[in-house]
């Protein structure tokens, strides 16, 4: 799509009151989306209230994070790429750029409410596996890719709970445990904040509760 076409699509979404989730893998695609969002927001400042989402944001540049913050775009990183395809990214882009794929730490430092996803069925929707990836950034080889983009466990958990609910306008009902919110939760066999970064991947779901009712038991 041309920049103009992207902008027109965003205006159409704005008039329909629709949230936009745009697939941007490369830094040029991210730039095109950010510029289009900025242009639309100049004309319609409350476009920001529709919480535009940048899906993957794989090669989102550290120098683009300020524009993400300014426009209110929510990045959703496919951070498990680090583990599954880290070596491929190094081959394709060189180490310097590969180290900054899925730059969650840079987003965190800007106070941007990012989320994580697995592009299922590309990878199974394993949220704890994704939390492990974001915290450790280990590749299949065992080497770390982009140590400076690792984030604390609590922030990784927030990305798949509080921020995920916010991304879908469900923060009043889901995302955290509060009186009055839906009782949607999982029971784990260990405390992810206490087990240590390496063991996160081995934390298991014992029980899943949906709207107050158990729908799965291990
Ligand atoms: Zn995709």
Tell me the total number of β-strands. 7
Helix content: 25-40%
Radius of gyration: 18 Å
Mean pLDDT: 97
Listing every helix as H and every strand as E from the N terminus to the C terminus, the arrangement reads HEHEHEHHHEHHHEEE
Largest sheet: 4 strands, parallel
Tell me the fraction of residues in β-strands, as a range. Answer: 5-15%
Distance between the termini: 46 Å
Lateral strand order in the biggest sheet: 1-2-3-4
List low-pLDDT spans: none
Judged by helices, strands and strand pairing, the structural class is alpha/beta
Bound ligands, each once: zinc ion
**Count of alpha/pi helices:** 9
* Backbone shape: globular
Describe this structure in words.
With 218 residues, this protein is α/β, with parallel strands linked by helices. Helices cover 39% and strands 13% of the residues. The chain contains 9 helices and 7 strands; from the N terminus they run αβαβαβαααβαααβββ. The protein has helices spanning 3-16, 27-43, 65-71, 81-93, 95-98, 104-109, 127-136, 153-159, 162-167, and strands spanning 21-24, 53-56, 74-77, 115-116, 185-188, 205-210, 213-217. The strands form 2 sheets. It has a 4-stranded parallel beta sheet with strand order 1-2-3-4. The protein starts with a helix and ends with a strand. The structure holds zinc ion.
